[in-house]
Amino acid sequence: MTVQNVATAPQAGVPKTSVWRRIWQQDGPGYLFLLPWFIGFFGLTLGPMISSLYLSFTHFDLLTAPRWAGVDNYVRMFTNDPKFAASMRVTMFFVIFSVPLKLAFALGVAMLLNRGMKGLPLYRALFYLPSLLGASVAIAILWRQIFAGDGLVNKFLSIFGIVGPSWISNPNYSLWTLIVLAIWQFGSPMIIFLAGLRQIPQDMYEAASLDGASKWRQFWKITLPLLTPVVFFNAIIQTIEAFKSFTPAFIISGGTGNPINSTLFYTLYLYQEAFGFFRMGYASALAWVLLALVAVFTAFSFLTSKYWVHYDD
Amino acid sequence: MTFRMDRRQFLMGTSALMALGAAGIGPAWAQAANMRIIFWGGQSRADRTYGVTDLFDEATGSRIDGEFLAWNDYWPKLATQTAGGNAPDIIQMDYRFIVEYAKRNAIAPLDEFVGGALQLDGFDEDQLEGGKVDGQLFGISLGANTVATLVNTVAFEEAGIEPPTSDWTYDDIMEKGQAFAEANIRNGMKMMTDSSGTEPMLDNWLRQKGLQLYTAEGQLGFGAEEMTEWFTIWHNLREAGVIVSPDNQALDTGPLETTGLVTGRAALMPSNSNQLVGYQALVPDKLDMIGYPRISAGSGGGHYRKPSMFFSIAQSSPNKEAAAQFLNFFISDPEAAKILGVERGIPCLPETREVVAPTLDEANQIALNFVANLGDLLGPLPPPPPAAAGEIDISLLRTLSQEVAFGARTPEDAGPYFVNEATAILARAS
């Protein structure tokens, strides 16, 4: 703010100021303050991105110079790579199930917490905790212990005489254990929902209950419509997160994506191609396809948003 | 003072370097005969290795900085450093990668140093051969090992069953295994792990049939029929409840702690001779070692003495002569030998073996005896596997063995599928 004010200070009296000088005086200090970010963005993000775009059109094994391959990598991906298809299926399944379930769960907890209970900050912090821990190696290892054949879950089930399978190493259930892990990290959308819920004017609920609307009806007709901007925001953020998810699958499957590729997340396959088999060109191509996919998903969300997101104006 | 790092120290070290940089003091990197060494392994291997570099530094006044990583992290790191023209002078190398590195001129031929800096008189012939690519010597074997089955002797005692010896056969797995399962010890422990996805075991089985996993030309050395037979053997064992169930087997993701032998799900597990020491540290019961099963009584030749790992010298190294001297010191100096033991396998020079033998504990002694007395189990060294062998193992064989185990594919279907896919992977890589 101050920068702006200084920069727009009257200069009319000063003649013959060159355009560059004027720009510098106006915006220079701002850019100066942005410099660390610029260096990071151009040096550490944009540069590598451009070179990975180039590499995606080559065969590159790190040891010898990249060989130009045209669109070979992309062609192989879409025509002749069963593991690409498998990993895409796993990731889509994960995104489609984990994101809505996580958001629903987060919203439910947020509504419980929004009843003006005592000790709210404490509960809020407690429920947020898994989000801080969730992507960590330690939790993934813990998850292995909980869902293994002789793990906590099966010990609990055995009380009722049920013999459970080894959840994490059975291809029918392994991906679901990862989805449960994702849902368990509902903290950050919950906090955002909680803030959103507080924005909803209480008098609307009062008016609705005077008219005899049930709680259920109030939720569908007041809470949810007014919360759609927050739902929209959370959905986009969580979808991108879900596409990028890597650590839990990597740790729980030991980097293999097994059993039978049932936890072979797209990112895990990308990692295997790059650092397991040293196909940097192909891995770069995979990365760009993922970027495109996420962009399409996000664009689609934005395009449809005008039909279901109600901004308060 | 030498400079060494693991990952944790790396973080601290980086901040220290930045602090130094800020203060305008750079560490003195460029001195004569300064060298770097890189290897994979655990803390125990690192302690032994640095013990020897310290000795060498003292004796010659040079300075060797070291870095070690876990196997999975090692290859990306080495490839990245090599790509950046910044490879360490001395590189621990594996039989699986040596051809790739040699053919791409990333490591240097050592023939010019043999007889000079490198004294290899009496060096085991098969170990020397193992380090050659197209007739040139690219790696010095640091020890010999071989595949072996580890035996939990206490579990067999509890089950009241005589543990198998190196004369056992695949039929014995079924017979003994059924008796073992009936004994029902330790909450349903099985006699053996499901090893249908264990590449060295498939290799061993093929060799006993007079075939091989890969030909010298880097092609598949067997057909769909053998692969179907292999999967059928394990399918029958699985059906009979003799080996570990599929979902328990899938908990084994590689690290020692996740394997059936350590988690107590099986009393027999295929492994390598030099790993007995590592496993014995994790299993409270006394372990022993026998060969892989024979396809029929009296059949042999499946095993071979494999160079467990090599030291190679980077093509980019300016100190090749000094590095060769270090290699020579590493394999032949008596004090160095005492520090190293047989942790990298059985030493390849007879004099070194004599120095080491009396210093060994029981587990090491078992490993030494096993490798030295393979008898008719021993066959010739196969050619180095093609570059894509790792991919076929990891992304095809292991996954396919799980598909058969979980019933997603029949052995009859899996056999031809394996051959087709493996051939495609080999074709793509070449």
UniProtKB/TrEMBL annotation, chain A:
Q: Report one GO cellular component.
A: plasma membrane
Can you give the residue ranges of the ABC transmembrane type-1 domain? 88-301
Cite the PROSITE patterns for this sequence.
ABC_TM1 (PS50928)
InterPro entries under this entry?
Answer: ABC_transporter_permease, MetI-like, MetI-like_sf
Where does the UniProt annotation place the signal sequence? none
User: What PANTHER family would the database entry show?
Assistant: ABC TRANSPORTER PERMEASE PROTEIN, ABC TRANSPORTER PERMEASE PROTEIN YESP-RELATED
Name of this protein:
Multiple sugar transport system permease protein
Automatic annotation (TrEMBL), chain B:
- One Pfam family this sequence matches: SBP_bac_1
Q: What's the chief localization of this chain?
A: periplasm
**Location of this chain's protein in the cell:** Periplasm
SUPFAM superfamilies linked: Periplasmic binding protein-like II
Identify the keywords attached in UniProt to this record, alphabetized: Periplasm, Sugar transport, Transport
**Keyword Transport listed:** yes
The answer, when asked if Lipid metabolism is one of the entry's keywords, is no
Q: Can you list the GO cellular component terms from the UniProt entry?
A: periplasmic space
Homology family: Belongs to the bacterial solute-binding protein 1 family.
Name of the protein in its database record: Multiple sugar transport system substrate-binding protein
Which organism does this record belong to? Devosia crocina
